[in-house]
Amino acid sequence: MRNPLMLAAENSIQELVEKILEKFPDAAYTIDGNGKNIFHIAVEQKDEKMYEFLKRNVRRDGMVEALDNEGNTILHLATKKGNSPRVLLGHLNQMAWDVCWLKRVWYDSPPHFQYIRNSDGKTASEIFEENHSDLRETAEKALKDMNSSLMLTSALIGTVNYAAVFTIPGGIDQDRKSPYFSQPILYHSHNEKDLLLFLWYTGVGLFSSLLALVAMIGIQLSRFCSNDFYMALPFRFVAALTSLLVSTIFTITACFKAYNILDIKFNINVFMGPAFYVLCLIYFDTVYLTLKYMYFALRCWFSYRGQEMSETSELLGRGF
């Protein structure tokens, strides 16, 4: 009969784990048939909540440093590819989470663990490379394909806004005898405020589209090594989509403002409301998981800010 505590941990049933440890505290120090203790299983399952619970309620003396029957350290077990409860879809999110989880476990491991080889003669970084090479390539291809389409969209929006800046509604005063020669005709009319708003909207739309292009070019030129998935790629991805959303919203607003300046009458709210709602819905649906991951990664970074982040870069630097 298998250990109920180990079964509960393997299936991420934290409530049952808590009840068992509440009644039988010493059960935490048992091992399964493979020589794994409960910390090993929590790390292997990538169960962050259970891992934090065990850190708070179980004495870790010797448990984190223990090896299983195959000579795997807790760091070796953290390199295995698997579905995290925080990741529902997306190769970028899966790869980013696995890199972050490896760093997270490394913080709690003895520094020399990154050099230890298991019974197969492999270090943790070598196993991570083997297990994640396909996922990294798939994530790179998916991100580049989507990024190419978004770059085209951002370039088109930027072109529209650039042209709008020099094609002002109402045109330019061409009368050389006029005191307002070469100035916008509507600039000195009752539409002056609306014209300034139009120019401001197009300016923000143009600037935001340029920011989106810069972020997307950064993604396209990335090396896509494992360490890039930790923070650089998720940040650029969110920055690119956020800038693209802002540029799209301000471009649409400038369009409706131009209609208003030209006295084209229609109910703006009928169009703007649904348009903005759909845009925001698509945006949050796309970046929600990435933002959730970045929140966890930053929280982890602040929790261990006393340790140098560059040290973990060395862990993923060899062979990636």
Automatic annotation (TrEMBL):
Alphabetic keyword roster: Membrane, Transmembrane, Transmembrane helix
Recorded superkingdom: Eukaryota
SUPFAM superfamilies: Ankyrin repeat (SSF48403)
Gene Ontology CC: membrane
Residue span(s) of domain PGG: 141-254
Transmembrane segments: 150-172, 198-221, 233-259, 271-291
Protein name per Swiss-Prot or TrEMBL: PGG domain-containing protein
Native source organism of the sequence: Actinidia rufa
Lineage: Eukaryota, Viridiplantae, Streptophyta, Embryophyta, Tracheophyta
